[in-house]
Amino acid sequence: MEHQTFGGEVTFAHAAPTDDAKKRIFKTTVILSLITIVELALGFWIYKMHEGGTPNPTLILFLKGVIIILSLAKAFYIVSIFMHLGDEIRNLIMTIVVPLMLFVWFIAAFLYDGHSWKNLRHEYRPKDPVKYEKVEGPAHGAELK
Amino acid sequence: MAQAAAANTKWWGGGKSPFNVEYGKLMMWYFLMSDAFTFGAFLISYGTVRMSSPSWPDPNHVFNAVPFFSGVHMPLVFVSFMTFVLIVSSVTMVLAVHEGHKGNKQGVIKYLFWTIVFGLIFLGSQAWEWTHLHHEGAWWGHNPFPNADGTVATTNFTNFFFTITGFHGFHVFSGVVINLIALLMTQNGVFERRGHYLMIEKVGLYWHFVDLVWVFVFLFFYLV
């Protein structure tokens, strides 16, 4: 079974060891770090707005949307550059990416369902919800009951 | 080994891998795809339950502790540290794969070693955070944290947090073990004798996936 041997079966056009590869790794590292820093800055901004009274819910939702999109960009860079999926041939990429399309339905359907539950709960909730009271006592080293 | 495929190569004509990768690497990709659905199912169920709740605990008031700064309110600080540790470990892993392409045994050993070190730092950080939360009274079935609107929260918050970060932490742990085995095999010259370092690529895929999942755990538990 000569064609089953490793050497003849796989070619390595995409994995040539050049300095370009190292440069690309460095560039991706910088991009990932910068995106993370921006995400943290936005997260901290949201936190600060919550501290200073009642924030604009539309702005909060918008910022959270931006953070989610930035995370998707991070995911793209990790998969495409670090995992070298972008260097594989198209058919291989498609067998990975096309099944993942299921997530579109998965997320939309389930979050819609959750939203529907929230509306039902809102309709039947008790008129005066139980307020939280902090239990006094030694926090550290205390046994869980 | 390094010959390039011609532009009009007949991939499906036999005698060649149609995807131009070896069997093990292809199967690693398919395993990771299925694992992505497992984590996706976890995170989506978390999103659904959170969506259905009238209110939810504010992560900035739950995850606000940093080691050596007891009692100081510092949201996002410690988890940022953990995130950067994983990013750096991903970079050292890709550098190990890069050295493997060049067939540089010492380079692979060096970068695999650092990947393992950063993986252990991440695991230690997570252990610290879990211990801290447990001391505050949080565990599966116990949630001491109130909702953002001041009402009593259900245990959904802690149940999802410990289940999902635990499942991710278990992946990190197995990743460290796999990296350690790969390091020992490299050191013993197994891949050198084999003539290629493709095993490092497969190990690397798994490790990057762990980093990838953390991007979303970090996003949905700490940031939004």
- How many structurally independent domains of chain B? 1
How would you state the average pLDDT of chain A, rounded?
83
Low-confidence stretches of chain A: 1-8
Q: What does the largest sheet of chain B look like?
A: none
Reported CATH architecture of chain B? Up-down Bundle
- Summarize the amount of helix of chain A as a percent range: 55-70%
CATH topology of chain B: Four Helix Bundle (Hemerythrin (Met), subunit A)
Q: What is the first-to-last residue Cα distance of chain B? A: 47 Å
Class from secondary-structure proportions of chain B: mainly alpha
Helix content of chain B: 55-70%
Secondary structure tally, helices of chain B: 7
Q: What does the radius of gyration of chain B come to?
A: 21 Å
- Tell me the fraction of residues in β-strands of chain B, as a range: under 5%
- Number of β-strand runs of chain A: 0
Globular, elongated, flat, extended or rod-shaped: what is the shape of chain A?
A: extended
- The coarse silhouette of chain B is elongated
Order of helices and strands of chain A: HHHHH
Q: Oligomer, anyone?
A: heterodimer
Can you describe what's shown?
The complex is a heterodimer of chains A (145) and B (224). Chain A contains 5 helices and no strands. Chain A has 145 residues and is mainly alpha-helical. Chain A folds into 2 domains: 18-87; 92-125. Mean pLDDT of chain A is 83; it is low at 1-8. Chain B is an all-alpha fold. Chain B has one domain (23-223): Four Helix Bundle (Hemerythrin (Met), subunit A). Chain B has helices at 23-52, 59-62, 77-102, 105-135, 156-187, 190-194, 198-223. Classes of the chains: A mainly alpha (145), B mainly alpha (224). At the A-B interface, α1, α2, α3, α4 and α5 of A face α1, α3 and α7 of B.
